[in-house]
Input
Amino acid sequence: MSNAELNSSYVKGGKRFKGTLPSILPEIAAMSIEHNLKNTRHFDSSLRCVAIALDGSRLVEYGENKLKTHPFLKETYHDLKRMSIHAEADLVIKLLRRELTDGVTDVVVLRGTRRLLSSHPCSICYSLLRVYLRSVRLWWYDAETKGWRVKIIQ
Ligand SMILES: [Zn+2]
Output
């Protein structure tokens, strides 16, 4: 097994950063871009997303977009139809499963493999975040202004 395979997951829960947001955004961006580059998940590079939940300087959990065969579709279409799960939805599912939603202070959404692309959540994911993560700061990259943006989810 090569080093690349051994370290195939660059974003990991439990990681503690040496600072808090926004100063750790460059580190989070580098880590996420590496993650998206190495983990294709059968998506075009521009479509690979990660959503990261933090509690201050600790990475609580992360989600990534992925293709998932729905049991119903699998039975009906013999594995030909697949649905994709957005990174934010994957994150919320993991947080709920581990009962970690209360400790989350920030969610950062990142897209792309070589440079950051705009990453504001779609309306469905934003609604999902609003239901489960109130009063949490949401950070996303804006490629138009080449900068980070933030707002409180409420
Ligand atoms: Zn979405």
The radius of gyration is 16 Å. The chain has one domain: 15-153. Strands lie at 49-55, 58-64, 66-68, 83-85, 106-111, 136-142, 147-153. Residues 61 and 94 are 7 Å apart (CA to CA).
